[in-house]
Design goal:
Blueprint (H helix, E strand, L loop, with lengths): L5 H28 L13 H50 L12 H17 L2 E2 L2 E2 L14 H6 L7 H13 L6 E5 L5 E5 L9 E7 L5 E6 L4 E5 L10 E7 L5 E9 L8 E3 L8 H37 L5 E4 L35 E4 L2 E6 L7 E3 L4 H12 L6 E3 L2 E4 L9 E3 L2 H6 L14 E3 L10 E3 L22 E5 L2 E4 L7 H15 L9 H15 L9 H37 L3 H26 L3 H4 L1
Helix pairs in contact: 1-12, 2-3, 2-9, 2-10, 2-11, 3-9, 5-6, 6-9, 6-10, 9-10
Amino acid sequence: MSISSINYSSSVLGSQIRNINTQLTDLSTQLSTGKLSQNYSGMGTNEGFAIASRAQLSNIAAYTDTITNVNVSINLANTALQSLTTIRNTVQTGSANTAQDLNVNGQTVAQNTAAAQFGSMVGVLNTQAGNRYLFSGTAVNTQPVADAGDIINGTTTQAGFKTVLAERQAADLGTGTGRLVQTSLPSGAVQVSEDVAGSPFGLKIAAVSSTLTGATVTGPSGSPVSFSVNLNGTNPNNGDKLSVKFTLPDGSTEQIDLTASTATPTPVGSFAIDASVPVNPANTQTSLNTALNTAITKLANTALVAASAVTAGDNFFNTASSAIGTSVNNQAAPPAPVTGATALSGASPSDSISPGFVAGDTITVNGTTLSFVSSGATGNQLNVGDSIQTLMSKIDQITGTSKPSTVHGGSITINTDDAANLSITTSNTGALGSLGFASTPVTATQPPLRIGSSPASSATTLVNGSATTVKWYQGNDGPGSPRSTAMARVDDSVTVQYGAQANEDAIRKELQAVAVFGTFSTSPAGQYSGGQVAALSLRVTQALTKQPGQQRIEDIQTDLAMSQNTMKDASSRQTQAKAQLQTIIDQAESASPDQVASEILSLQNALQASYQVTSNLSQLSLVKFL
């Protein structure tokens, strides 16, 4: 018989022992680290789930950072908006309860407070989060609002609001009667007329009514608008009344009521009925004429002055850019930007917009209709194959712009001296969209408006003052919601919008009202000073009171709060997802301490047994074997 070498068996046992030692080392590492392995290859078949889960956790961590940063910006913006609300309430309370005591500068205490609050508002609107301005829209690196001093007082080259206010008041007041002309006609009648037809300044005659016995009242009619009152040589009865309603530059209306009276002295708001013997109705007519002039002068120097100040604020603050559209034509690929020569219709790949206009289409500009024909266009017609430049020339003729509309770099800019009234509609919205105007009607908000000639007291036009007037808002002024100017993804399928602009209606109107109230001043000892401040205070109070359908600062705060709620919900979902994903990772990669300890104990027992066997074998000899 043959006997195998003991060394063979020993080598097998040695290998087993080394394997057990290796396992014990791995298990000891698992016990100390809590991980199944120190490399992916040792993790097992579920490691793919762990890797995917870890990637999702990384995304959640990024979303968490984004949510934290966005919340910081929103909280700062909300604090700023809350400050604006406090300022609004402070100024509104002052304007509603202002005493008429004027200081040496012709202002009340409430107006002085408003002037100081205006500077605070500008500071609030220039709030930054890090190096990002919160109220500049997409122009995050641009200070949204010019310095308060420049806005009010101007710079060396541009006029501020104080200058615009003074010019507008001079234009509205005229010689002191609100640009109304009162004359005595040969018939003995009194006539009141607006000084220039179509002028935007002064008092506008809206309606006249009369209960004057025997009198003839004509108008308002004509160009310029006028009315006349003729007593026809007859005395009216005591208590008979003449009423004249006027429209003021800010759109408000005021009415003068003059009552025929036999009382002595003649009451305020009345005119004397002649009581001489014999009666002379001509004296009554003269009394009426004088009372009418007095009433108009008082109205012009009180309510009109206040309305003029409010309108000046709108001329200065309610501003933005002209109407701009950007498009490409349908030339052979790639499409090219439109030029003035691009046709309004044509088959691809011709240099034309697509879709284009067809015969029978119309474009209406400020109420004037341009019609498209196949050929032979005349007057307010366009050939379908005419160029964009031809269309712009037609539009410019209708708007009467002093600055021609342009096409540059694929952008079509419609310029107009009266941007507030620009309205362009069409029967073919697709073709208008090809010109880059996505919505209809095409509109353009107002540039700063200045008095069109000097002296202002006889001016008859308003002109674009962009080049000579301080631009108070310097941030982004593009189309779309201000909220969309700042967006962030806070979950795989969730984005929030949290942008804001200082020229949003709610903010702009408050800034405008505070500036008007804080800038306006009058003569401390003037005859009508009290009435001016009272009329202005009323208008400022109304401007700072929410009107139906108008944006309010609280509306902006609500929008931001909704974004925060969206992020809060996303964060809650992500917290739950993190726990679940971590569980997947732990199940795939973590080693159970109890199981590892049990396996170590088992291996230790096996190792001890192996050592015992090895020891016994090492003492084996032929003698013992036999």
